[in-house]
Amino acid sequence: MATAGIALVTILRTTGTVDSDVAWQLWIAHRMHAGAKLYRDIIEVNPPLWFWMALPVDSLATALQLRVESVAVATMGGLSALSLGATAQLIEGRPAQRGLLLAYAGLMFMATPWMHVGQREQIVLIGTLPYAALTAARRSGAQLSPSLAGGIGIAAALGFALKPYFLLVPVVLELWLLVSQGKAWRPLRAETVALVAVGLLYAVAVFVFADEYLTRALPLVRLAYGVTGAPFISALLSPMLLAAAAAAGLAATRPRFFRADAPGLPAALLMASLGFGIAYFIQSKGWTYHAIPMVGCACLALAAVLTGGETVPRLTRLTAPAVLCLPLVFAIVEARAERAPGEDLIEAVDGMHAGDSVGFIATDPAFAWSIALQRRVDYPSRYMGFWMMRAVVANELRGGPDQRLSALGRQVVAETVADFRCLPPRRIVIARPRPGEDGFDILPFFLRDRRFAELLSHYRARSRTTVETYELVSPLAPPAAACRRSREEPVNLFLKSFQT
Asked: For the chain, what are the domain ranges?
């Protein structure tokens, strides 16, 4: 039943597209296969593992001549089925009850992240369920296959390694196991060895294959990424957070919940939800997908309570079904309310065909994605979006006290000019406030650079709504230097400032 549910949801989802982050991830994988170097030819602030994971997806899509989005969705469906298969070997109970729990888990894996399929939070949730079930089985003293435990540990480690914050989850689970077992606790187990081994191999791979993540991406994060945070603490109080709190509260009302002889799966899942909740607040963005593993583990804990065969309080019995449905309802509401790309942007790229070069300039990274992937246009910039410009301009409004930000602004514009000369856009689309409206206007900042102003003089403005489009009317001058930069390229100006 659970596998059939995953298959159905996966089939329904393969006809759609993916969100902006995942579209960027898949585009990066395609560019890497074409020879681009991550963090040098493509400027990205996230660790490399997620992008490496997209490489086999892109290869498979190319080999089968399928849409890469569809292959990505199918991959997530396959991973979900494997996760449920591993979990089924670790949980006890009557077949009908186990089937209900696994079926609900399948919905949490594939339906709740409907708009965010392929996100790191979905991947880590898929890996966390069997790992939590494994930890609960260890607590009960069950004899487990080392190969099963090791495989689950490897899969979970790859999910936990996607973001540093996710490492809180295995730590919280291990502390819970330590407190539960006391002197019987053993740190060296197949799954913990797998976690450490994967972590060490990943660290070595970063130093060997993605060293520029440390020298380029991390300084950029430290310098400018703070502008992407939630402006107020109230922005973190999302519906998903409230659903997680309600599910966790109901699950914790179960009698004998923390007793040693009680089933461990609900408690293990609550511990995992706690770890993801801490990660949610540390990130302080308030984005919906950041709450997916937190609400997923909390709701699965409540579902495990209901299907565990024990008597539960009447309040839990009456309210739990509604609470378990909340994440699915929120996913439906989010999908129906989705307005990206907007009509102005769709009109701006009208007439462009697959393979046409289209330049996008906006502070919102989601502006060009997913429409660039949907239309299969060539994307000439090394940047997903120009989110860092808000930090640059804010620094200027303060009188420019941070010279690193001033240097970063100049560097980004210069690199954009170089990118556009290497792959001249037939059309440039710029996000701008409507005439007479207040709002951040990125174009005047770019026009300060005489090289960008000269480049834009080869274009004619077509329209102005929330976006302004420019059509190429005369050839651009050839690039002053080779388009493929060498590994010996001088360090960026804003990086040099870190060394002075």
From this structure: 2-337, 343-499
